[in-house]
Amino acid sequence: MLLNIPQCTGQRKKIPLVPENLLKKRKAYQALKATQAKQALLDKKEQKKGKQLKFKRLEWFLHDSWRQQRDRVRLRRLEVKPHGLEVPDKHSLAFVVRIQRINGVSSLVQRTIARLRLKKIFSGVFFRVTPQTIKTLRVVEPYVTWGFPNLKSVRELILKRGQAKVKNKTIPLTDNTVIEEHLGKYGVICLEDLIHEIAFPGKNFQEISAFLRPFHLSVARHATKNRVGFLKEVGLPGYRGEGINQLIRQLN
């Protein structure tokens, strides 16, 4: 359901922030996550008290070796024959989500994942579609999925999961004052401006998108018990065009 966000006006005093009902939901969600994180930390400490030394089986090392060898062969083929993807001219914005684990993959894949800021599984970022970004995505193609989000998806992601990095701290996007303070020099003074600048990339897209933290999407409760089944629901990695909007609805 789309949320009506107050439009920006020339007056900067008492700018309507986020709808009150959404703000309450976000605060309740943040409080719940904080409680869960605290409990998880306590549980982890309890487990460490009686934790036994774990040995890795030979199969584990063989599996990592196989993944690295597979990456080397795939990347070598990309160098010989890039297989360029033709992207429709009407699309300038894309959203990429990491949907696979990267344990044991090649160092190039790990560095590329870090450069894309996708260090956690089921995290996602916006990026501008260029030949260079397409080439970068080909390096990590077996581990991510990406496509072209519409305005509705951009709005819902930012409203529900938008966070910013301010002085090495992660803060939710609930205050237009923070947005104006850090992005005002680019003409962005409120949440609605931010949504517009992301949905329709301009000359300052790189700086504005860097202000946003990667989006940490939700994972279904049954995912931990039935990982194979959940990944089947998510779908295959790689390019999915406008189908990325369905995945955003599923994980947001």
From TrEMBL:
Residues 94-144 form the Large ribosomal subunit protein uL30-like ferredoxin-like fold domain. GO terms for cellular component: cytosolic large ribosomal subunit. Pfam families: Ribosomal_L30, Ribosomal_L30_N. The keyword Ribosomal protein applies. Keywords: Ribonucleoprotein, Ribosomal protein. The keyword Transcription regulation does not apply. One of its GO terms (biological process) is maturation of LSU-rRNA from tricistronic rRNA transcript (SSU-rRNA, 5.8S rRNA, LSU-rRNA). CDD domains: Ribosomal_L7_archeal_euk. Residues 18-89 form the Large ribosomal subunit protein uL30 N-terminal eukaryotes domain. It comes from the Eukaryota. InterPro entries: Ribo_uL30_ferredoxin-like_sf, Ribosomal_uL30, Ribosomal_uL30_euk, Ribosomal_uL30_euk_arc, Ribosomal_uL30_ferredoxin-like, Ribosomal_uL30_N_euk. One of its GO terms (molecular function) is structural constituent of ribosome. PANTHER family: 60S RIBOSOMAL PROTEIN L7, RIBOSOMAL PROTEIN UL30-LIKE. Belongs to the universal ribosomal protein uL30 family. This is Ribosomal protein L7 like 1. It comes from Ursus americanus (American black bear). The lineage of its organism: Eukaryota, Metazoa, Chordata, Craniata, Vertebrata. The gene is RPL7L1.
